[in-house]
Write a structure and sequence with these properties.
heterodimer, A: alpha/beta, two-stranded antiparallel ribbon, 6 helices, 13 strands, B: alpha+beta, 12 helices, globular
Chain lengths: 251, 381
């Protein structure tokens, strides 16, 4: 089975985001594989280990995206395709077109992705890819079983779960509870060096949406300190809750 | 000249740091308190490929180098010095001599399981009356037919009891031959006549295993001689040369762990209306700590790089271990000072790090012996 995994390189989830000239500053920020995509990589490797096949990692991004591909290769993927994207502001539509173009060429039996990216959280790209390629699609999968030419996916739905069957090839997005991604082993890291990464130019496509402003959440306000004697502070607190926080009191 | 790590080494550091923080750090204080060695952590390190970093893939290794090895020891020691020394003793003291001096057969039989992390290794040179003076080894190995018969006692053996494979230094020639009458052997746990004495109760690195070894007419096959008869002292000294890189890395890791904690604390601890990190007395401490750590790290990486490049590294590794050991002691003591009363409390990790740091000035040759090694080389040139 040939499995393609789409990975996005994102800021480290623990990184402190700083805005510079209205954009997120990349200075000194650690880049990682989007944690949801890491789950997709792990799932692909597990399927390969179980039934054989090939795992191809596809990543659209700037020069540093090679690091994300290398990490997936160190975990056990076989080869990578790096779609060179120099404009970091490409929208989900353009990104999906670029990925779909490469995925079409690869002709995988299964396309796995994380269900959301930890940075922009838009949850659009895999769905758009499925649409462009005209493939069946299952989202937010927590359990994946492969049968003869089909995949049985257990997915999270509001307040419960749903089991869905799709014919392969299909685009399936992973929820973090699907598996626990492995650490790349030292041997894996050494072997990753020898695995091929193909560099391809992104297909020319115009973004349809544009980010016009980015803002950080408002800084946390300092707490309110109430001082005085207990009977007095109790009264002050109650008044503050009623009048300023506007807590609704039900009789 | 390029001071950057390779892309693989950078990735490897991230992986080990992540592993150390998730799998090793959470139980570090508890294992220290209970003086409990955890074999499961070693097996997990094996799965990650940490147990055979520098060895070729055909011997179960990762095919990497000694720089990656010291990075692993450093990152483990940053959260748990006991786990750091477990790996250091396993690789530098037990696996290395088998890799360097072992026959093809010995490598297949012993190096592969050591590298894969299915078996733990240990090294036994120190005796009650032969510490710094290893030429005074009293444990004897007498050839009797197809076997050597071992008799004697070894003390302070890291990884002992849990280890499956031991490299043991013993006397094969008369006492008058001094260090020329000493040989090295591979001894398996479970060999009749090989038992363990008391478990050492230690100041620091309390969750690493330290036991006495007792040999009473212990018969080991003749083919378990490592290298040639009479080469044991030389092998032992070479083992310690490389071992010093591992201990230097352990010391750098301990210092970094204590520094990181003290820095965070200093930024948050408010006294006299502002964080103590704004007081010059604290800032200057932090600056000195960070500078010494960086110097110790560069010495350590340089020594490991020299070993990987197959260049002489004995002087460099002695300097690295001397400086890094003293740095670990200095930095951890300052970290305790920055935390004040909380630093002295076992609620916080820096007192453990300070207890752990002390051993890095003592084992793999005391820092006084390092100065002997370094000055001998200076005067020989």
């Amino acid at each position: 089975m040939k499995i393609a995994v789409c990975v996005k390189q994102t800021f480290d989830t623990e990184a402190k985001i700083v805005l510079k000239d209205g954009k997120i500053s990349g200075d000194g920020i650690n880049l990682i594989i989007n944690p949801y995509d890491e789950v997709a990589v792990e799932e692909a490797i597990r399927i390969k280990e179980k039934q054989g096949g090939e795992v191809v990692v596809v990543c659209a991004g700037g020069d540093r995206a090679t690091e994300a591909i290398r990490q997936a290769l160190a975990m056990g993927a076989d080869r990578g395709v790096h779609i060179k994207v120099n404009d970091p502001d490409v929208d989900e539509y353009a990104r999906a077109v670029m990925l779909a173009e490469v995925l079409k060429e690869q002709g995988a039996d299964l396309i796995l992705c994380g269900h959301v990216a930890a940075d922009d959280g838009s949850s659009q790209v895999p769905t758009r890819v499925a649409e462009i390629l005209g493939l069946p699609h299952a989202n937010v999968v927590t359990k994946l079983e492969l049968g003869d030419g089909k995949a049985v996916c257990t997915r999270e739905v509001d307040g419960g779960m749903e089991v869905m069957e799709v014919a392969l090839p299909a685009v399936i997005t992973c929820q973090v509870s699907l598996n626990e991604p492995r650490y790349p082993s030292m041997k894996g890291i050494m072997q990753a060096k020898k695995k091929p990464i193909a560099n391809v130019d992104a297909v020319a496509v115009e973004s349809k949406a544009k980010i016009i402003e980015l803002a950080l959440p408002a800084a946390k306000q300092a707490g309110k300190k109430i001082e005085g004697e207990p009977e007095d502070t109790g009264k002050q607190l109650a008044e503050w809750l009623l009048n300023e926080v506007k807590v609704e009191v039900k009789q | 000249m390029d001071f950057r790590l390779t892309e693989e080494q950078e990735m490897f550091r991230k992986v080990v740091r992540d592993f150390a923080e998730k799998e090793v750090a959470p139980s570090a204080a508890e294992r220290d308190e209970e003086e409990r060695f955890d074999m499961d952590i070693f097996f997990k390190m094996g799965e990650l490929g940490l147990c055979g970093i520098p060895w070729e893939e055909e011997y179960g290794g990762a095919g990497s180098d000694f720089v990656s090895y010291v990075i692993a020891v450093e990152e483990l020691s940053r959260v748990c010095a006991s786990t750091g020394v477990t790996l250091s003793a396993h690789i530098s003291l037990c696996s290395w001599p088998i890799w360097k001096f072992g026959t093809e057969e010995q490598k297949r039989k012993y190096l592969i399981p050591l590298a894969e992390g299915t078996k733990l290794g240990a090294f036994a040179i120190t005796e009650p009356s032969a510490g710094s003076d290893a030429g005074g080894t009293r444990t004897t190995a007498v050839l009797d037919g197809d076997h050597y018969v071992l008799n004697g006692t070894k003390v302070f053996i890291t990884n002992a009891y849990y280890a499956d494979i031991y490299v043991v230094i013993a006397r094969t020639g008369p006492k008058e031959l001094k260090h020329r009458g000493i040989s090295a052997f591979i001894v398996e746990k479970g060999t009749p006549g090989f038992s363990f004495g008391k478990k050492e109760k230690k100041l620091g690195i309390r969750s690493s295993a330290t036991y006495e070894l007792i040999f009473e007419d212990c018969r080991i096959p003749k083919e378990n001689l490592l290298g040639q008869e009479g080469e044991g002292f030389k092998i032992g000294m070479m083992i310690l040369d490389g071992g010093r890189n591992g201990i230097a890395a352990q010391a750098v890791g301990i210092a970094q762990g204590a520094f990181d904690f003290a820095l965070q604390y200093a930024k948050q601890r408010v006294q006299f209306g502002r964080p103590i990190a704004e007081q010059q007395a604290i800032r200057f401490k932090l600056a000195d700590m960070a500078t010494r750590i960086e110097a110790a790290r560069l010495l350590t990486y340089q020594a490991a790089w020299l070993e990987s490049a197959q260049l002489p590294y004995g002087k460099a590794s002695a300097m690295a271990k001397l400086y890094a050991g003293d740095t670990a002691m200095y930095v951890t003591t300052e970290a305790v000072q920055i935390l004040g009363g909380y630093g002295y409390s076992r609620e916080y990790p820096v007192e453990r790090m300070m207890r752990d740091a002390k051993i890095t000035q003592i084992y793999e040759g005391t820092n006084e012996i390092q100065r002997v090694v370094i000055s001998n080389m200076l005067l020989k040139d």
